[in-house]
Amino acid sequence: MQITDKYTFHGELSVPGDKSISHRSIMFGAISKGLTEVSNFLQGADCLSTISCFQKLGISIENDASRVLIHGKGLHGLTQSLGVLDVGNSGTTTRLISGILAGQPFESMLDGDSSIRKRPMKRIFTPLSEMGAKFQCFSADGFPDCLQKTDLGCAPFRISGGHLHGIHYLSPVASAQVKSAVLLAGLYADGKTSVTEPVLSRNHTELMLSGFGADIRSDGTTSSIEPEPQLLGQNIHVPGDISSAAYFIALGLISPHTEIKINNVGINPTRDGILKAALAMGGNVTLLNERTVSGEPVADILVKSSTLHGTDISGEIIPTLIDEIPILAVMAAFAEGTTTIRDAGELRVKESDRIAVITENLKAMGATITPAEDGMTIEGGPQLHGARIQTHADHRIAMAFTVAGLNALGETTLDDETCVAISYPSFYEDILSLTT
Ligand code: S3P
Predict the structure, then answer these.
(1) DSSP bridge pairs for 368
(2) Nearest CA residue ID for atom 4, ligand 1
(3) Is residue 86 within 6 Å of ligand 1 at its C-beta?
(4) What's the gap in Å between 52 CA and the centre of ligand 1?
(5) How far, in Å, are 183, 204, 213 from residue 178 at the CA level?
(6) What is d(CA 294, CA 116) in angstroms, rounded to the nearest whole number?
(7) Is the CB of residue 353 less than 8 Å from the CB of residue 233?
(8) Per DSSP, what are the bridge partners of residue 222?
(9) Residues 234 and 30: beta-carbon distance below 8 Å
(10) Among residues 218, 212, 265, which one has the least CA distance to residue 239?
(11) What sign does the dihedral 357-91-13-205 (CA atoms) show?
């Protein structure tokens, strides 16, 4: 794909439904009794992987694009899949479904694409094994690979579930996927289960599971759940994904003579770091029409062209903007002065090693960037020029560098933009709808 810098942008749009919330609506609907109806579900490849895994586990799910109907069978209604559960590119599917499968009285085999086969799973194997589940990893060529041999523990792997004990887990990482896997396993345990994280991560599991009827409580960075609740199907309206809105926030701020309104965006405080960072950089960002939808805070976001300046991003804010760091790095390259990002070592184990991939691509566009083990330092200012971008099949890299290319001098080429389908299939149509 080729991108040039000929545009200004005007108008309004609604970004697709939130990826984290869409995944959870399928999973929690599947293990609840009765019908769950989901509107504004994200029809991205990751969420479709979640649907297909639960269909293989015996759940009837109808998806006609405008709404998804899940015919839930209750906590103990899943049945063993005949084949491998294919999680595709989705870390959220892999880790959350593992929490549920840990509580089932049958074995399940999980596998995904080449990216998922490199992502660390030991972070869920450790607490779920402590609760009583058993895991066996296989190397990609099919031979059993001893868990002790690898620090990471990767897909493909087999889970043997059943007979779980409640635990209190002190998580070494601030990860909503780890927290959610343990809490979901806690639904099947013989007593209370709790998780304490070093820094609070996104809390959609806690909010939505409580709406389905679970006895789940949060106190600071600790969340606890009681086993064997009566979960009942719900109607869920998924808010727009702030992680997708982030590309339009950045586009609105760094493009000249531009004004963009993004409607119906989830602004949960465990996800709103991009708004705080944009404001700290001097961005003209206004929240309009704030309201609550399906238990989640939502607003429309108005952004206007701004002169951005550098900022420091580290500590507790990091989990609230972890997926937005590729586009924040692009904003930093267009800002005046220095931006530092630290405490973000998790970027190394996302869909790609995002610290390395952001560095490689921003350098190719002429930016000054120094990577660190847990972040990066970017000297903003000089006009970026077009370049050949390697996306490494990472959807967030493709979208962030599309926004960069739209504001760089000359032509930018992406080696593969099809990966945007993971979280935002209509990304390029939505960009075009704003061009003037
Ligand atoms: C997610 C949690 C985050 C995030 C991912 C979605 C979730 O991952 O990066 O895109 O839906 O729980 P970690 O839990 O690994 O931080």
Answers:
(1) 379
(2) 323
(3) no
(4) 20
(5) 9, 13, 21
(6) 31
(7) no
(8) 196, 219
(9) no
(10) 265
(11) negative
User: Which residue is closest in CA terms to ligand 1's atom 13?
Assistant: 175
CA distance 137 to 125: 10
Q: Are 370 and 218 in contact (CB under 8 A)?
A: no
Catalytic residue among 145, 323, 394, 430: 323
Tens-digit pLDDT profile for the chain (436 aa)?
777 766 789 999 999 999 999 999 999 999 999 999 999 999 999 999 999 999 999 999 999 988 999 999 999 999 999 999 999 999 999 999 999 999 999 999 999 999 999 999 999 999 999 999 999 998 766 556 544 445 678 899 999 998 999 999 999 999 999 999 999 999 999 999 999 999 999 999 999 999 999 999 999 999 999 999 999 999 999 999 999 999 999 999 999 999 999 999 999 999 999 999 999 999 999 999 999 988 899 999 999 999 999 999 999 999 999 999 999 999 999 999 999 999 999 999 999 999 999 999 999 999 999 999 999 999 998 899 999 999 999 999 999 999 999 999 999 999 999 999 999 999 999 999 999 7
Q: Quick one: which atom of ligand 1 is closest to the CA of 350?
A: 9
Q: Is 391 in the pocket of ligand 1 (CB under 6 A)?
A: no
Residue 175 Cβ < 6 Å to ligand 1: yes
The DSSP code for 18 is P
Q: How far is the CA of 322 from the centre of ligand 1 (A)?
A: 8
- CA-to-CA distance for 102 and 166, rounded, in angstroms? 12
323 in catalytic set:
yes
Query: Structure pTM?
Result: 0.97
Asked if 88 contacts 114 with a C-beta cutoff of 8 angstroms, the reply is no
| Region of residue 162 (left: phi > 0; alpha: psi -120 to 50; beta: else) | left
- Is 320 a pocket residue for ligand 1 (Cβ < 6 Å)? no
Protein residue closest via CA to atom 16 of ligand 1:
175
- CA–CA separation, 139 and 154 (whole Å): 8
- Residue 422 CB less than 6 A away from ligand 1: no
| Strand, helix or coil for residue 26 | helix
Residue 160 CA to ligand 1 centre (angstroms):
24
Does ligand 1 lie within 6 Å of residue 346's CB atom? yes
CA 116 – CA 90 distance, rounded (Å): 7
Say which DSSP state 127 is in.
H
Nearest CA to ligand 1 atom 5: 92
Closest ligand 1 atom to 173 CA: 16
